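Pasting as-is:
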Amino acid sequence: MAKFNIFRARPAGTSPVATAAEPSGRTYEGGDGYARDTKSELFLLAVSNMGGEDTFYESADRRDSRFAQLVHDAALADPEWTARLLKWLRGEANMRTASLVGAAEFVLARLVASSDAGVTNRAVVDSVLQRADEPGELLAYWTGRNGRRVPKPVKRGIADAVRRLYDERAVLKWDSDARGFRMADVLNLAHPSPAAPWQGALFQHVLDRRRSAEAAVPAELRVIAARRELMAWPLDERRALFSRPDAADVLRRAGMTWEAVAGWLQGPLTKEVWEALAPSMGFMAALRNLRNFDEAGMSDEVAATVAARLADPGQVARSRQFPFRFLSAYEAAPSLRWGHALDQALQASLSTLPALPGRSLVLIDTSASMTGTTVSARSKVTPAKAAAVFGVALGAKGEQVDVHGFASGVFRHDIPRGASVVREVDRFLKRIGEVGHGTDVVGSLKRTYNGHDRVFLISDMQTMSGGYGRGVDGVVPRHVPVYGFNLGGYQMGAYATGKGNRHEFGGLSDATFKAIPLLEAGRNADWPF
């Protein structure tokens, strides 16, 4: 009889997204539904909620109302935790709308309840404002929901953010008549004290230019002065600029973005224009314009410098792009010269996905609820695309990973060793519809689980009822971890989570995968913030 070479289950760690131990409701497809506690439900909704967007099972109004109520409940029960969540949402998770809405609802709940325990409302507002257009965005949300009266904590938090965010380039980029709240309106409401003399001159100019577009430009504001000078050039001189070797420097000194140049030239952007703009373009702008670069005939030499930036892990990390953005860029770009760089960028954006020993099973949901809507009205990305990015990348990282798509049935998707992740995702997505359109989580596990050391389930978790008795636990032994990655944020879970090797994460980035190595080591995992 063996004494040493026998299986010993590691102690199972706990994870923060927790449900009741027994089902208490139904998923949208009729399966057993497990209710989550307030923090868990809020977290999963926050990391998948774009705000004002319908999903397959929930209207925008219902989803936004549920989010607001959850923020209210959490803000009163544990304001410090909720403040950390909102700051992390805007930062590492890059969920802009959810964090702004969340901060406004956080303040509203505490004002109504006359609660001021813990973190200040002012600090929470300041923490979620990370881009110069966002003070106006938050004010627009607040006044649209609560009327024109803006409370002092909101004003003071906005004032703190304005001191950090308002500079000449921000004014040129974000201040326009197209916005309900212009920067002058923000200044008039929040009354921020300038951080330096130049910023005092900037604030005054913002107020002056609201009254008159021809307001004088103070001497301290050299970028705005350079922009005004450029705008006065005759059209033929504007076009002639791009035959000069200093074109990129001239544009940079005047804070000219590619959008500003497009309006300035009053016509299509040529090869020479794009090549002059490329060195100073932001990461996201470059990523979104690959098709334009190709159609204009950008040279291979300049394209190579752009590709090098896109593939740089440091720049990818600083850009905080969702991984699916690189897939979208790959699908949109006509030229193959971007493929390798985008593949590297995608893999860099998934740096926290674990490469784990042993055998892993990855199940990727391809049901109708994952393909029937997009993550936002302006996007072409479906939840199934986001799921495929995570699932295929997990498959490419490990040596013994079985990847399957599932809906009413399952299909196996073998990933060749060393294969391009973006191309494999593209190939996987072409197979959607092969196995129906339902969501049969437990049935799919029964067809695919075969002694694996762990299971990854990437889905919106709205499983159908299959009469499977013990559900997930009836298929996967309790000593084997099941890691659910939730892309829907709906109210009910598909199985009990939080302990006993049953865990759930969520979101559109890889930020929450950091917990998995802890759980694999038998330690407890905490929130990612």
